[in-house]
Design goal:
219 residues, mainly alpha, Tetracycline Repressor, domain 2, elongated
Length: 219
């Protein structure tokens, strides 16, 4: 049987989690500027003043949600990669990371969606702290793309930095356009994996490894 003190701590932790969940939901819908503590309190079914028992300010609450969102994305992707067999080819690992990122953003975590949607809206100091966390995640994607290149299967016409930034940028933009009434998460994942796999992989019919600037111009 739990002691009274333990019960109090459990209740307090549950209420704090409700507040964070509510904030993530409101952030997803209204953005940083539109998120009001009164809205958070309504979703959490609490009185607004009660929020200050757990968080000193609106910004402290929002920063915690964004921090957790970034951490959950990293954790989910890393766990997906760790679950793969040790001899999984680099391109398959990259595609697994693509799927894990999309699933955590689109169907598993309001926190991660809130973090992605609002990072650019945050005050400078908060954004700087969050970017430090984001750089660790960016390093993971850098390694995944570099491993594809090191395996000798990358298209020589593809710039690795551009490829990485385009992949991550496209994944992070998915919450802005995805509508579950029009297409499923499975379809989005399949399309993303296909684009990454065939976009990065060298084609035996492709041109030589080097092209002139004129060859690269678009029509």
């Amino acid at each position: 049987m739990a002691k009274k003190g333990d019960q109090g701590a459990t209740k307090s932790g549950y209420t704090r989690e409700r507040i964070l969940d509510a904030t993530a939901s409101v952030l997803c819908q209204k953005g940083y500027a539109g998120t009001r503590l009164s809205d958070v309190a309504d979703v959490a079914e609490l009185q607004a003043p009660a929020l200050y028992y757990y968080f000193d300010s609106r910004d402290e609450l929002i920063e915690e949600v964004v921090r957790l969102g970034q951490q959950r994305a990293q954790q989910h992707v890393r766990e997906a990669l760790d679950a793969l067999p040790a001899d999984t080819p680099p391109l398959d690992r990259l595609c697994a990371a693509v799927e894990a990122h999309l699933r955590v953003v689109l169907e598993l975590s309001d926190y991660t969606m809130a973090a992605i949607r609002n990072l650019g809206q945050l005050p400078e100091g908060m954004r700087r702290r969050m970017l430090a966390e984001q750089r660790q995640y960016g390093k993971l994607w850098e390694e995944l793309v570099a491993d594809v290149h090191a395996a000798g299967i990358a298209n020589p016409d593809v710039d690795l930095l551009s490829a990485r930034m385009l992949i991550v940028g496209a994944l992070n933009w998915a919450p802005e356009w995805w509508n579950p009434r029009r297409t499923s998460v499975d379809d989005v994942v399949h399309t993303a994996r296909t684009l990454v796999r065939h976009g990065l992989r060298a084609d035996k019919r492709s041109a030589s490894k080097t092209r002139t600037r004129g060859d690269r111009r678009t029509t």
